[in-house]
Amino acid sequence: MVETPTYDLTVFKVHYGKLTLKIYTKGERVLRIEVIVHNAKELSCGRSLPNFPVIVEMLRGMLERFLNSLYCMDRCFIADDLLERLPEPSQVGKANVGGVDYNQLRMRVAMRASLALSAAPNGFTASALARKVGELNTSKDCRYTPRQAAYDLKKLRSKLLIEKIGSSHRYRPSTTGLRAMTALVVLRDKVIKPLLASCCQRKRGPKPKNPTRLDAHYEQLQAAMRELFDELGLAA
């Protein structure tokens, strides 16, 4: 949820059951980031006063993981060797699993769902991933089951993009995984697709009335890409 209670103040809220993560920003500055527990029963650690230090420590860990998720997504990166290794088959324990093909719709949506659940205070299960994929997938031709989610999680774990939390059946993206999966989403949807689409259009539409710095960057890139395509002999 996004709220603007007063002028120039924006509050971002992420709700998980009885837990809430909040960011207060004013202009381009972050004023405060906090985690709130509305009912300590949600933490399953007891609600008596002697357990207060334990509750505070758990909330601090949630806040640090939330900040880590934001930082990794804001500064995403994927190394070329990882990009080459993703489609290769690998192992998780003694089990052989297939490679990660980001060109497949199912894997793309699974990665997006993993990113959407990355800030979950206690990680997420295969069933939660399946529900999130169902929300994100606009194509209703096939149903995504928890069993498929478990297999996709195993493939992502083999590439160290997802890690298992202890001996539980809960998962969370690793630091490298957050950066790599975010980079794949950004590169495909915000760089490659717009540039290829613009190079294929002979007739350009009207320029935006209020262009941003991002619009200016896209225009410069599109012009350079056309020259690069001509030099390489790649037909737009």
Walkthrough of the structure:
This protein is an alpha+beta fold. The chain contains 7 helices and 8 strands, in the order E-E-E-E-H-H-E-E-H-H-H-E-E-H-H. It has 3 domains: 72 residues; 105 residues, Arc Repressor Mutant, subunit A, CATH 1.10.10; 48 residues. A 4-stranded antiparallel beta sheet has the order 1-2-3-4, covered by helices on one side. Helix 3 packs across helix 6. It is globular, with a radius of gyration of 21 Å. The relative contact order is 0.09.
Q: Which labels suit this protein?
A:
Arc Repressor Mutant, subunit A, 3 domains, 47% helix, two-stranded antiparallel sheet
Task: Write a concise synopsis of the structure shown.
The protein is an alpha+beta fold. It is built from 7 helices and 8 strands, in the order ββββααββαααββαα.
Q: What is the correct CATH architecture of the largest domain?
A: Orthogonal Bundle
Helix content: 40-55%
Largest sheet: number of strands, sense, barrel closure: 4 strands, antiparallel
Rg, Å, rounded = 21 Å
Low-confidence runs of at least 5 consecutive residues: none
- CATH class categorisation of the largest domain: Mainly Alpha
Order of helices and strands: EEEEHHEEHHHEEHH
SS field, number of helical segments: 7
Q: Reading side by side through the largest sheet, how are the strands ordered? A: 1-2-3-4
Per the principal axes of the C-alpha atoms, what is the gross shape? globular
Distance between the termini: 41 Å
Average pLDDT: 87
Overall structural domain count: 3
| Alpha-beta classification | alpha+beta
Determine the CATH topology of the largest domain: Arc Repressor Mutant, subunit A
Strand content: 15-25%
Number of β-strand runs: 8
